[in-house]
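Data availability (excerpt). The following record was deposited with the supplementary files.
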Amino acid sequence: MVILLEIVKIIRSLPLGVTKPYLVEGSNGKKYVAKFCGNRDGSRILINEYVSASLGKLLNLPIPNFELAHINLSKFKDDLSDIKLIDGTVFCSEWLEKSAPVPGYLVLTKTTNKYDAIKILIFDVIIGNNDRNPGNLLINFKNNTLVAIDHSHVFINQAIWDEHSLNRLIGEEIDISGMSKFNYNNLSQCLNDKSYTVEIKKFINRMKSIKRSDIEIIVNSVPNDWNISNNEKKSLIDFLMDRISRIDEICNILNIEGGD
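Predicted structure:
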């Protein structure tokens, strides 16, 4: 994988939990939320972010553009006080200049992409995201759109998954009881507007069109320095394909009409 972006400036740390992200500037002049290998939960959260964002983009979900980046850690060691200075590829999600967390259901209905709320709900079940807390579902005030960020703790077991935990989940009952209640309740209330049907059917059919080779391309492009073994790659692909193949079951659990 060719990585063209270089981090040229550390702007400030961001108070966003255990992953200890930083607002940075890239060599392309854009600002990003950067997560480093030396965060407390390690490189698993970078794999989670990259795979989830890549799949989200494949599904045309409202996820910020992202890049993989290099950084000269020795140059910025005094600016990165919250993390261990461990060399490795950096995950960078494009910074939204004017945004704020979704305060409640009614705000979701006023966005220009209100149907994406239901798509995000389905997506979170697919990727095993029980951590959709109030801080990672945003309104982008520049265009009044709903945006989903922060997929660092997914695949059910969050930052401690391995091939064995993923394999155990394949074919097992899909349990949504652990999903964060605030955003789950807000997102699921969007199902009250039955005008979603046509749009969501298209999304579900798009999900059904995903091939194993599509997921393999994503997982196999994870940077080598994030320490994912071939067995773990296979298990992650198997887990995601199991979830995707059960999209009708997931829709039944969520009381959403399925695709054609």
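Summary of structural features: The mean pLDDT is 91.
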